[in-house]
Design goal:
- The protein is built from 19 helices and 15 strands.
- The termini are far apart.
- It has an 8-stranded mixed beta sheet with strand order 3-2-1-4-5-6-7-8, sandwiched between helices. A 7-stranded mixed beta sheet has the order 10-9-11-12-13-14-15.
- α15 (421-437) crosses α19 (492-499).
- Helices cover 40% and strands 13% of the residues.
């Protein structure tokens, strides 16, 4: 029986574990019309959790988002449970306890002796294997992952995770139940990190790598990700919000689960931050300081005003940055277009070149400045430029002045191949293609998960289509040549995706 079956009252839902996630999941099921029973092994916690849920529903009434009558009806269905035996008639039991494999296995082994044969058993784990948790069960086919995101009552995404032994019918029931609760479920296989925590690793890793390589400071990297890349938060401020220990633990778990795959290697700088006790907002200090005694927060590097160039020459197509030519003309700067087969760049009056980040470095050329990828060049309020010690000062000033004439703040960073946004987006696209090729999830579900789970401005496949089939592969291939440890090696899936659009010839 799924939730809100019109033919009969909704079945009872049991929730084990009454921390933040347990309370949130219980509230979701309660508001959806289920009788909900809360259990916690610690005496008194289930009752305290019920009181906390009561208070939250009262706040919903105060805000006009719930009627007093609906609140009272819902609360009439909520009850603390003193024993697991009170779950005997439940149609679903969701666990949200300590992330400890042995604890979870023992819990579900006990539940299996209590619940009915058609009761779904679900874990809200974010880091452990669903297959491993359900391994000791006699009937692992009814065991599934239901990974809610915090706060569960507000965030719509639920990852429905099928373990190795999960029956298709069980996964379908769990999926439909989550949808009946008003959530947006996505289906995925039991892989380290599931969808969101697997695909999102480069968002943090590449920001940390730029910082560790002395390419830019945290405030500048965050500003570029927000104001150029369109992300709601930068990687440093977001991990301060999540908690450095929590974020680093997830990264380490995914890395270890993939047998120390270099693509998921944790950040040494973040490890040192955790070791120092600077865990972010909750400790008063992380990448940034918090509290009244912290003084002024660091500002992103912003270049001083420079004169715009008298003209630019466009050689070849600018690809994802083609909109810049329109913006330059609108700013009153003449654009001369030359059809060149060998370049996709702007030539400045002093003879220097301005090119979209492509995975190469400025030091490889006599006089070039790279500019970063933007989600929307018209809407972007900041652009990052990358230059080397061999870049002429006139070229750099002309590049700065050009983007300032377009109304953008300019941040000059070090000679970083792939810069900030471009290398991050390329790696997100690569991991997403690899995940689809390995049966983790569909393209649609990955895009949905990344938009709703971590609030990305576009899903990775939406970005891939916008940037072109070969863009990510080309950039990562360039990066891999310059950093050949394997971190940037394009996946076979991305290679196939890019090659399928290029010069398909008959077999010899």
């Amino acid at each position: 029986m799924t939730a809100l079956d019109p033919s009969r009252p909704a079945g009872a839902v049991g929730v084990v574990g009454t921390g933040t996630m347990g309370q949130g999941i219980a509230q979701v099921a309660l508001v959806a019309g289920h009788p909900v029973r809360l259990y916690d092994a610690a005496p008194g916690r289930a009752k305290a959790a019920a009181e906390a849920i009561t208070a939250r529903l009262a706040r919903l009434v105060d805000k006009g988002r719930m009627s007093p009558e609906d609140r009272d009806t819902a609360l009439g269905r909520l009850s603390p449970a003193e024993e697991l035996s009170e779950f005997a008639d439940a149609i679903l039991v969701v666990e949200a306890v300590l992330e400890d494999l042995d604890v979870k296995q023992r819990l579900f082994t006990a539940l299996e002796e209590i619940v009915s044969a058609d009761c779904l058993l679900a874990t809200n784990t974010s880091s452990l294997s669903v297959t491993a948790i359900g391994g000791p069960l006699r009937r692992p086919g009814r065991f599934v992952g239901l990974h809610f995101f915090n706060p569960a009552p507000l965030l719509p995404l639920v990852e429905v995770v099928s373990g190795f032994a999960t029956d298709v019918t069980s996964a379908t029931r769990a999926y439909e139940m989550a949808r009946a609760w008003g959530k947006r479920p996505v289906a995925c296989a039991d892989t380290p990190g599931f969808i969101v925590n697997r695909i999102a690793r480069p968002f943090y890793a590449e920001a940390f790598a730029v910082f560790e390589g002395q390419g830019a400071d945290p405030a500048t990297i965050d500003a570029v990700l927000r104001e150029c890349g369109g992300f709601k938060m930068g990687a440093f401020e977001l991990t301060d919000l999540i908690g450095q220990d929590v974020n680093e633990s997830v990264t380490r778990s995914v890395w270890e689960s993939f047998f120390n795959d270099v693509k998921f290697t944790p950040s040494l700088a973040q490890r040192r931050l955790v070791e120092s006790g600077r865990l972010g907002r909750k400790s008063g200090h992380g990448w940034y300081g918090y509290g009244d005694d912290q003084g002024e927060q660091p500002e992103p590097h912003t270049a001083e005003a420079a004169e715009p160039p008298a003209f630019v020459v466009a050689e070849g197509e600018l690809g994802p940055a083609a909109e810049l030519l329109t913006l330059i003309r609108e700013a009153g700067i003449p654009v001369r277009e030359e059809d060149e087969d060998h370049g996709t760049r702007l030539v400045l009056p002093g003879g220097g070149q301005l090119a979209l980040a492509d995975g190469q470095t400025s030091v490889e050329y006599r006089d070039v400045v790279y500019f970063d990828l933007a989600l929307d060049y018209r809407a972007a309020t900041r652009i990052a430029l990358s230059a080397s010690q061999d870049t002429g000062q006139r070229t750099l000033r002309e590049a700065i002045g050009l983007f300032q004439a377009l109304g953008k703040k300019v941040s000059v960073i070090g000679d970083v191949p792939g810069m900030i946004v471009a290398r991050t987006v390329a790696r997100l696209i690569d991991l997403s293609h690899d995940a689809v090729a390995k049966g983790v999830a569909t393209e649609e579900d990955i895009d949905t998960a990344m938009r709703m789970g971590v609030n990305y401005p576009l899903g990775p496949f939406e970005w891939s289509r916008r940037l072109g089939r070969t863009w990510a592969h080309s950039l990562l291939d360039d990066l891999h040549l310059r950093d050949p440890g394997g971190r940037y090696a394009p996946s076979l899936a991305l290679y196939r995706h890019a090659y399928a659009s290029e010069n398909r010839e008959s077999a010899p």
